[in-house]
Structure formats: structure tokens, C-alpha cells
Amino acid sequence: MMRIKQSVHTALLLGFILLVAALLRFYQLGAVPSGLQKDEVSFLVNTMALKATGRDEDNRAHPLYLQSIIDPKPALISYLQIPSIALFGENTFAARFPVVMAGLLSLVTVFFFIKEVLDELYAFIVTGILAISPWHIVASRATYEVIFSFLFSVLTLHLFIRIVRSSHRSWWEVACGICAFILAVYLYHSTKIFLPSSLVLSYFIYRPQKEKFPSKKTIGFLLVSFCAVLFFTFFVKDATKRFASVGLFADPSPMIIANEQGTDATGKLPLLYMRAYYNKVVVYGKAFLENYLSYFDPRLYFFQIAQPVRYQIPLQGVLYIVELFLFFIGLIVALTRPKLRQKFLLFWGIFLIAPIPAALTTIEVPSMIRSFPIILSFAVCIATGLIWIVQLRPVWLKRLGLVVVSVGYAYCIVFFLGQFFVQQPSYQSWYRNVADEHMAALVKKYQSSYSSILVTTYYAEPYLYLVRSHAISVQQLQASYPARMQKQFSLANITFVPGECDVVPDYHTLMVTYSGCRFSYLYKIIDTASYDDGTPAYYFVIYSPPPDIRTPDKQAHKI
Predict the structure, then answer these.
(1) Sequential DSSP letters for 379-411
(2) For residue range 455-467, what is the model confidence (pLDDT) as tens digits?
(3) CA angle 285-286-290, nearest 5°?
(4) What are phi and psi of 538, to 5 degrees?
(5) Which residues, listed in sequence order, are joined to residue 82 by a DSSP beta bridge?
(6) Burial of 490 (0-12, 13-18, 19+ CB in 10 A)
(7) Is the pLDDT score of 559 beyond 50?
(8) Helix (H) or strand (E) holding 510
């Protein structure tokens, strides 16, 4: 009877935490973050295509990866969006609904994972911290691959540790763990390094002391998992394209600097010196180390410097300021108590491993999304700080500590809600693509009034937003591949041109140009697509000369 009551209390408390988490994630989901940025809209467009025809935007049947924006993305996200848009329509809420559900499920997996490796008290506190965490909230609303991969990564670690601790686990549990691992490494590139490393570390931490050799289930789990990593790294061509474009070794600037230094030093320094210091290993090693160490700067987590900018909240870090003090209290407590130090070995490992794949890239560094699993280590340390305060003696000191922490959290949460739901939508909105959505809606509005429309590709990939607004049909999009890989191409009555200010002297053509263009008296701006802060992004221009002007042949030209 006591166990039943305890289970009911556990379910009720966990349910309450999930309810709070759901409110923070579903509230204004269609409006915050503002607009669907390019990665989001590419998933939605492919979802529309798969739902309508069973093929992606490039007319490939049931793909494993999507090629949208020349950046392979896991097609599973689009498959999961199909029921969502069938229920809610082709809108922003529907596109983000599966992501929020993944975020909520990740809280459930975190609860049982922490309960397995620590205890139930830690599980509740850590889950509660993540439920109200700005970092987890942002990731659960817009970072599609990241939060799905995090969900399956935590599930993998949980099941693997259970298998390592007891050889009596069923093969079904092993199979579920392997499936979770495969999904995690398929969904996000960083996981290919983070998760295998964490599994190996988990084995050495949690294996029974009497066990000289790993069990068959453990060996099978690790063997299949590492084969999956090799498969997605070396045999699936699409899986490595992203790293090839943003990876550390794709950036030539470190070697350019080294070559300049070597050229300047020729004849001034010994050849042995130049070979020892101006080589790829040293140059890229320093670049990696610089990136890696940036993830241990507290400013990254508690102040507004984490990349990418499109996910930043003005004047708000990814963690609350009050958690800065709790984190350091928890860190000191964990390091000074031998039992906790031993219990936290896995989380020390995650703290050191998670930034490694993030440090191997050059774009948007330091990144809040590529190092996302490190949030587990922060949450455990913050929970330790809270537990230390709860255990303070005398009682008046404990009460004082709890009051200070409660007031601190309340102050920080209210500030976060205001910054996120009110300020963030219009903050540096040019880093998102709200103006592209406005442009697409206006093109749809004017489309029937003009025989042809010219749209600049100055902002890149405007066709995705035009498909979403149904100015271009899914079938027209699929039929245009690979022709639309050219600099200039046409879809429906819309021609996409690389020039930002191209106009033609034709009464029947609507021209959508970059807002920085200036036009002569022969042309008239009839509308503007702007960002949420009012900054113009696109001008809608028509040929409208004075009555006494007669223009010769239609010909594109810049003003």
C-alpha cells in the first residue's frame, strides 16, 4: 500500500512539473520565436511535399535525409510533422508541435535517468530545473534536431547503464537502447562524438566491481552502436555534408595566418622552427583548443553571448543568474564530498565531452545547441546547491536560504518571460526570416494581378516561403529540380534573380527587390515587406513612368 501511495505521489509531482513545462512551451508557440527561420521552413515545406506526394522537395521518394538549402537534414522530423499539420494545418504551431512534444518527453527520460544514476530527489529537482530553464525552453520550441537527439541520447544512456549494472536485463531492453542510439546519431551530427564517448565512460563507471569482462548484452550494445556511428559517418554521404561545410578543417583561415607568418619568417627564423610551429597540427590544434575552452566561460551560460543569435534572448543567458550561485555552491559541495564526487563522475564526463563536437566547428561558436547535453551537468550541480541549502542548519538559516533562492528564481523567471515573449520577437529580427514570410504573403496577394514576378535571392532561399504561402505549388517545386540549383530559375510565374535591384520596364511585371535599392522616377514602390521591428527587407516595385514617357523593349536593368 505504501509503495502504491508513493508511486501516486511521484506520478502527481512529475505530472505537475510536466504541466508547468507544457505551459511554458506551448504558450504563443506559433509566434515565439518569431517566424520560421530557414531550417524550420525547409522541414515544413518538405513535410507538405511528403504529405501530398510521398516525395520530398527534390522529388525523391521517402528519403532518409532532406537536401533542402544544400544542408542535409534528417527526414524523420518531416515525417513526424505530417500528423501535426494534418491536425492543425500548415502553420507555425503545427511545425513546432512535434518539437515541443520531444522536449516534454526528454524531461520524462531525464527524470528516470537521474533516478537511475542518483536518486528520486535529484530526479525531481533536475527535471524541475530543466522544465523552467530558458535553455531547454528555447531548444524545445525551435531546435528540431537538437531536442530530438537529446531525447534519444538520454534514453540511450539510461538503458545502457541499466544493462551494464545488471546482466539480467532482457534483450528487448538492449534492442530499445540500440534503436535510441541509432536515432540519436542519425538526428544530429554532434551526437556521433558525444554519445559513444559517454557510453564508454558509463561502462567503466557503472560496471559491477566483480565483473572482469563485459556481459554479452553490453558487448552487443556497444558493438552495434559503434557500427551505427561508422555507418552514418562514412557510408551515408548526406550525413557528413554539414560537417564538411562548417567543420574546423573547412575553415582555411588558420592555415592562411600560419602561411603568412611562415612567409614573413623566411630567412629570419630557422627552417626547423617554422616546421615545428607553422603546421596544420599546431594551427588547427590551437583553434580547436580556443573553441573548446570558450565553453567553460561562465558568461556563455549566464549572459547573452551564446550563439546562434537567432535563439538569443535580449539581456538573458541560457541559465538564470540565480543559478550561477547555486551552480558554484553545488560544484564545491560535490568536489569536497567523496561520495558525491564518485556519484557525479558521469556528469563530470558529460561536462568535458559535450563541448568537443561543438569545438570542431567554426560557425556560430560558442554554440548553445551543439553543446546542449552539457545542460545535464549544470542541472545536477544546481540541484546539489539547492539540496545543500535545504540541509542547512540551524533552521532559520535554511529558511533564509530558501527565501533568497525563491525570490531570486521568481525575479529571474518573470524577467525571462518578459524578455522572451515580448522583447525577443522584435530583437534583431533580421537574424530570423519574418520578412520572408511577409514577402511571401504579399507575393501571393499580388500574384494574380501580374503576368510575371521577379524576386531577388539576395536573402537566399525565398522560394521556400513562397511554397509555404502556396504562391508556388508543391508539384511545381518538385518539377523544378535540379533547374532551381542555378543562379536564376523560374517557378510558376515567379523568376528568381541573383541581382538585388533588378527591374524591367514592363507594366505586367512585379519586381520584389532588396530594400537597399533606389529607383528612378520610372518605377514606383507599391508595398514593403519588413521585419518585426519595422526595418524594411523587400520592396515591391512596378514600372510606372509618366504618361509622356514611352519605354522601348522590355529589358532587365539596374537603377
Answers:
(1) HHHHHHHHHHHHT-SSHHHHHHHHHHHHHHHHH
(2) 999 988 899 999 9
(3) 120
(4) -130, 145
(5) none
(6) middle
(7) no
(8) strand 509-514
Indicate the pairing of strand 536-543 with strand 509-514: antiparallel
CA distance 462 to 252: 29
d(C-alpha 300, C-alpha 317), whole Å: 7
Is beta strand 536-543 parallel, antiparallel or unpaired with respect to 523-530? antiparallel
Q: What is the pTM of this model?
A: 0.94
Report the 3 state secondary structure along 317-344.
CCCCHHHHHHHHHHHHHHHHCHHHHHHC
Amino acid at 386: L
Q: Is 528 helix (H, G, I), strand (E, B) or coil?
A: strand
Rg (CA), the chain: 27
Q: Does residue 554 carry a pLDDT above 80? A: no
Percentage of residues in the chain having pLDDT higher than 90: 76
pLDDT at 25: 98
How far apart, in whole angstroms, are the C-alpha atoms of residue 56 and residue 67?
9
Lowest mean pLDDT among 54-68, 109-123, 383-397, 543-557: 543-557
Contact 343, 206 (CB under 8 A): no
**Residue type at 466?**
L
Q: In three state form, how does the secondary structure of 216-274 look? A: HHHHHHHHHHHHHHHHHHHHCHHHHHHHHHHEHHHCCHHHHHHHHHHHHHECCECHHHH
* DSSP one-letter code for 424: G
Whether residue 308 is preceded by a cis peptide bond, meaning omega within 30 degrees of 0, is yes
pLDDT in tens, 193-227: 999 999 999 999 999 888 878 889 999 999 999 99
pLDDT tens digits for range 51-94: 999 999 999 999 999 987 767 899 999 999 999 999 999 999 99
- State the Cα–Cα distance between residues 217 and 372, nearest whole angstrom: 29
End-to-end Cα distance, the chain: 82
CA 126 to CA 250: how far, in whole Å? Answer: 38
Q: Burial of 213 by CB count in 10 Å (0-12 exposed, 13-18 middle, 19+ buried)?
A: exposed
**315 close to 304: Cβ distance less than 8 angstroms:** yes
> For residue 17, is pLDDT > 60?
yes
- Residue 534 belongs to what H/E stretch? none
And the C-alpha cell for 79? 515525417
Residue 8: which H helix or E strand, with range? helix 2-26
Cell numbers describing residue 334: 560535490
Task: Round to whole Å and give the CA distance between 283 and 262.
Answer: 12
d(CA 162, CA 140): 27
Helices 280-293 & 253-265 angle (0-180, nearest 10): 130
Pairing state between β 536-543 and 73-74: unpaired
In the numeric block, which cell numbers belong to residue 216? Answer: 554479452
Q: In the chain, what are the domain boundaries?
A: 143-237, 247-429, 431-558
Q: Which residue has the cell 541509432?
A: 182
Instruction: Report the distance separating Cα 374 and Cα 366, nearest Å.
Output: 13
Phi, psi of 541 (to 5 degrees): -120, 140
Contact 98, 77 (CB under 8 A): yes
